[in-house]
Amino acid sequence: MRTAAFSPSNHWNATFRNSHFTTQRSKTNADPFLFNTKNPLNHRQVHPPFPSFSINPSKNPPIPISQDPNFHPLPLVVVGSANADIYVEIERLPNEGETISATSGQTLAGGKGANQAACGGKLRYPTYFLGQVGEDAHGKLVSQALEDSGVNLDHLNIVSGTPTGHAVVMLQSDGQNSIIIIGGTNMCSWPEVLPDEDLELVKNAGIVLLQREIPDFVNNQVAKAARSAGVPVILDAGGMDTPIPRELLSSVDIFSPNETELARLTAMPTESFEQICQAVAKFHEMGIKQVLLKLGDKGSALFIEGENPIKQPIIKAKKVLDTTGAGDTFTAAFAVAHVEGKSKAECLRFAAAAALCVQAKGAIPSMPVRESVSDLLQSL
């Protein structure tokens, strides 16, 4: 069963200036998003995406991306995982064979894909999420959280007979976390060939975000479709620890690992910045022109082949309660700034400010709205 979890009218109030949505990549005047709604198997209500928009003012009052009345933003499309994160707060990780008590526990929406989509929505940028959830309470939890964040769910697939992906997040008292993932609908029941309407969404995006908590063959189809249309693709290295297929990497514009992932994927040390540069060069040799590296408390850096790295120091938080979702927030905020046309240095700075979500618990609940990021940057 493929349908939208909620009617888009519940979370988008769109006012269309033209009868057809066109972009610089459109080859005809036909609206690429007006799909065959007469197909009885297609229950999704499809709308042209975001010529101008406003989010439910009771939840996310909009902030104009541009003062230009002719500016029609191309959407951020996030393809990836959706999880219910089961949080348990503990003083420390248990030793082998040991049982310890948690101080508290709760279940919140998460998953790298859903996190990144929610961040885009909260930053007031038109965002689509393409992923899968089950017909269960966890699926409803994730769908509601995405809707509340202002994310368009037209391309959310609800799968019967398979549970929604979930994760156990063990949050220690120092704010660090350890995570165990159960794939569920993130890894099962994907069609071998993605529907045309999903690929058309990708081809008409402003930027596409991928991660590795869904099958590589899905990411590969999406990345190829984006590449064929000239849409930039960012691949977050987080998720499966298996080698990344060369075929997928060949369609990626920006590869974004953290320091640990960089070391694992290259089998090279990353203890010094010189070693990091040598490890990044290995990806340049494989054809990846840009590497966006998350360095935790050391900040971040963007490595563009043939240029000097652009470094961004960390913007220190007053307190660190939970690092869950910080990397996803950083990557998504960078993507939003990138598609809005900010310079590379400005993108890094914007993303660093958004990553201050570590000051609150949970991934999606802690993500900042655009006003908070703007206010923080103006205060620095």
UniProtKB/TrEMBL annotation:
<dbReference type="InterPro" id="IPR029056">
    <property type="entry name" value="Ribokinase-like"/>
</dbReference>
<comment type="similarity">
    <text>Belongs to the carbohydrate kinase pfkB family.</text>
</comment>
<feature type="binding site">
    <location>
        <begin position="83"/>
        <end position="85"/>
    </location>
    <ligand>
        <name>substrate</name>
    </ligand>
</feature>
<feature type="binding site">
    <location>
        <begin position="111"/>
        <end position="115"/>
    </location>
    <ligand>
        <name>substrate</name>
    </ligand>
</feature>
<feature type="binding site">
    <location>
        <position position="213"/>
    </location>
    <ligand>
        <name>substrate</name>
    </ligand>
</feature>
<feature type="binding site">
    <location>
        <position position="366"/>
    </location>
    <ligand>
        <name>K(+)</name>
    </ligand>
</feature>
<comment type="pathway">
    <text>Carbohydrate metabolism; D-ribose degradation; D-ribose 5-phosphate from beta-D-ribopyranose: step 2/2.</text>
</comment>
<dbReference type="InterPro" id="IPR002139">
    <property type="entry name" value="Ribo/fructo_kinase"/>
</dbReference>
<keyword id="KW-0119">Carbohydrate metabolism</keyword>
<dbReference type="InterPro" id="IPR002173">
    <property type="entry name" value="Carboh/pur_kinase_PfkB_CS"/>
</dbReference>
<feature type="binding site">
    <location>
        <begin position="327"/>
        <end position="328"/>
    </location>
    <ligand>
        <name>ATP</name>
    </ligand>
</feature>
<keyword id="KW-0630">Potassium</keyword>
<feature type="domain" description="Carbohydrate kinase PfkB">
    <location>
        <begin position="76"/>
        <end position="368"/>
    </location>
</feature>
<dbReference type="Pfam" id="PF00294">
    <property type="entry name" value="PfkB"/>
</dbReference>
<feature type="binding site">
    <location>
        <position position="360"/>
    </location>
    <ligand>
        <name>K(+)</name>
    </ligand>
</feature>
<keyword id="KW-0479">Metal-binding</keyword>
<feature type="binding site">
    <location>
        <position position="324"/>
    </location>
    <ligand>
        <name>K(+)</name>
    </ligand>
</feature>
<feature type="binding site">
    <location>
        <position position="362"/>
    </location>
    <ligand>
        <name>K(+)</name>
    </ligand>
</feature>
<feature type="binding site">
    <location>
        <position position="357"/>
    </location>
    <ligand>
        <name>K(+)</name>
    </ligand>
</feature>
<comment type="subunit">
    <text>Homodimer.</text>
</comment>
<protein>
    <recommendedName>
        <fullName>Ribokinase</fullName>
        <ecNumber>2.7.1.15</ecNumber>
    </recommendedName>
</protein>
<feature type="active site" description="Proton acceptor">
    <location>
        <position position="328"/>
    </location>
</feature>
<feature type="binding site">
    <location>
        <position position="328"/>
    </location>
    <ligand>
        <name>substrate</name>
    </ligand>
</feature>
<dbReference type="InterPro" id="IPR011877">
    <property type="entry name" value="Ribokinase"/>
</dbReference>
<dbReference type="InterPro" id="IPR011611">
    <property type="entry name" value="PfkB_dom"/>
</dbReference>
<feature type="binding site">
    <location>
        <position position="258"/>
    </location>
    <ligand>
        <name>ATP</name>
    </ligand>
</feature>
<keyword id="KW-0547">Nucleotide-binding</keyword>
<keyword id="KW-0808">Transferase</keyword>
<feature type="binding site">
    <location>
        <begin position="294"/>
        <end position="299"/>
    </location>
    <ligand>
        <name>ATP</name>
    </ligand>
</feature>
<keyword id="KW-0418">Kinase</keyword>
<comment type="similarity">
    <text>Belongs to the carbohydrate kinase PfkB family. Ribokinase subfamily.</text>
</comment>
<keyword id="KW-0963">Cytoplasm</keyword>
<keyword id="KW-0539">Nucleus</keyword>
<comment type="function">
    <text>Catalyzes the phosphorylation of ribose at O-5 in a reaction requiring ATP and magnesium. The resulting D-ribose-5-phosphate can then be used either for sythesis of nucleotides, histidine, and tryptophan, or as a component of the pentose phosphate pathway.</text>
</comment>
<keyword id="KW-0067">ATP-binding</keyword>
<feature type="binding site">
    <location>
        <position position="322"/>
    </location>
    <ligand>
        <name>K(+)</name>
    </ligand>
</feature>
<keyword id="KW-0460">Magnesium</keyword>
